[in-house]
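Chapter review: from sequence to fold.
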Amino acid sequence: MADSKSKAKDERSADEIRRDIAATRARLAAGVEGLVEEVHPATLKREATDRARDYVQGEFEQVKGQVKGEHGWRMDRIGVAGGALAAGIVGIIVLRAIVGRATGTTARRKLEKLQLSEAKRVRKEAKQRRKDDAKAAKKNAKLGKKNAKKYGKLDTDDSSVSNLAEKMLKQAAVLRAQAAAEREEGAA
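The token string follows.
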């Protein structure tokens, strides 16, 4: 019996069926176009932006209503908000210092800074030492050349050295004698 009801003869004409199919096709096409438009990234972006803007505007108006009344700014609310902001900043600074000490990052930074300054000082001293050593080497080289010119003859001629020594001894004896004579005159 159920089969006889479901297989009832369709009494529509071929033209009516074609019109029904065309109408259904048009409804499906409109529905698909609507779905495509609804899930398009640009549409989703625009809707999200609109929702965010509406939310922010609503929150702003709510906060503004709490801070600015009919008679102007409500300084008591502004003071509370400023105090809360300052307390938050101080809290963050204290928390950062505590975490830094607990993890050793503060001490590590200080040690690294100290090591860096010590390394710079040692490098500067080494540079100055190299500079001074280069100056001394240059000066010694000049003195060596000068002495080589002045005393170069001594290596080849020992007789001139002994003559020079004899002259110096004689001059010393003369000077001693003069000094003794001056002492005697002063005593007399």
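Two observations follow directly from the output. The first strand starts at residue 68 and ends at 69. The two ends are 175 Å apart (CA to CA).
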